[in-house]
Specification:
With 141 residues, the chain is mainly alpha-helical. It has two domains: 77 residues, Arc Repressor Mutant, subunit A, CATH 1.10.10; 51 residues. Helix content is 50%, strand content 4%. It has nine helices and two strands. The longest helix is centred in the N-terminal third of the chain and has 11 residues.
């Protein structure tokens, strides 16, 4: 029952938990949607995500902004596909920078296995405001 009590902004606790997940910076188009959103919190997470974007609480990041979620092997494959060389001994942070510097957003998008989501400043403020809801959920991050 407490999971159906709306905040003053009209959000349900499940919405706050989803915003918190986005705020962690690891939620992407490939992230599994936990069943608890529907069964415990009574929300459809993908619909809520669309609503967050519409209302300016979250946004879909660019391919270049998402590179930090991609593993080094995938980064090297992207560079190889672009015909670039000289990256074999680079560490991941160097690979990310090299891809960002050498490959355009347009050329990168089709090669990205995922695109990340992030909260806007307003979405982040709601996460901070409703920390009590997150603590009841049992944050892991």
């Amino acid at each position: 029952k407490r999971n159906m009590v709306r905040t003053e902004e009209g959000l349900l606790p499940g919405h706050i938990i989803l915003l918190w997940r986005l705020d962690l910076g690891t939620f992407s188009t490939e992230s599994a949607i936990p069943r608890y959103f529907e069964y415990i919190y009574g929300i459809h997470a993908l619909d809520a995500l669309d609503k967050f974007i519409e209302e300016g609480l979250a946004y879909q990041m660019s391919a270049k902004e998402t590179l930090y979620l991609v593993n080094a092997g995938t980064l090297k494959k992207i560079l190889k596909n672009a015909g670039l060389s000289g990256y074999s001994s680079m560490k991941k942070d160097e690979l990310v920078k090299y891809v960002q510097d050498q490959i355009s957003e347009e050329d990168l998008v089709p090669q990205m296995p995922m695109i990340a989501y992030q909260t806007t400043e307003h979405g982040h403020e709601l996460v901070e405001k409703y920390d009590d809801i997150i603590q009841r959920h049992g944050p892991k991050g």
